[in-house]
From TrEMBL:
Name of the molecule in the record: MTUS2 protein
Lineage: Eukaryota, Metazoa, Chordata, Craniata, Vertebrata
The organism's place on the tree of life at top rank: Eukaryota
PANTHER family: MICROTUBULE-ASSOCIATED TUMOR SUPPRESSOR CANDIDATE 2, TOUCAN, ISOFORM A
CC per GO annotation: cytoplasm; nucleus
Coiled-coil region(s): 4-59
Gene Ontology MF terms: microtubule binding
UniProt keyword list: Coiled coil
Record region (Disordered): 69-104
Organism: Odontophorus gujanensis
Amino acid sequence: VEKKLILEEKITVLQQQNEELRARIEQNTVKTRQLSEENANLQEHVEKEVKEKKRLSRTNEELLWKLQGGDVTSPVKSPSAPSTPFYRCSSGNSSPAKVRTVRR
């Protein structure tokens, strides 16, 4: 009888632990879903930022090409302003930190 009472008490303790563990699993599952959604949103944002950066880089390259005389209608190509400075990216990088002024 005494052994049965001890075993029933252990069963009760184990059932409580089991319920606590199930609750923790549920909380972890919810948190995992939230983090997965946040990760997906952040990844989408990063992809949009990368596309925008590429677009801006292309625009910058196009404007640099026009400044360097690639566009016949460019005002920089005017012979009346031969010493007009224009900007050229060193090493082909369109980063503003790498832009330098070049005299014609």
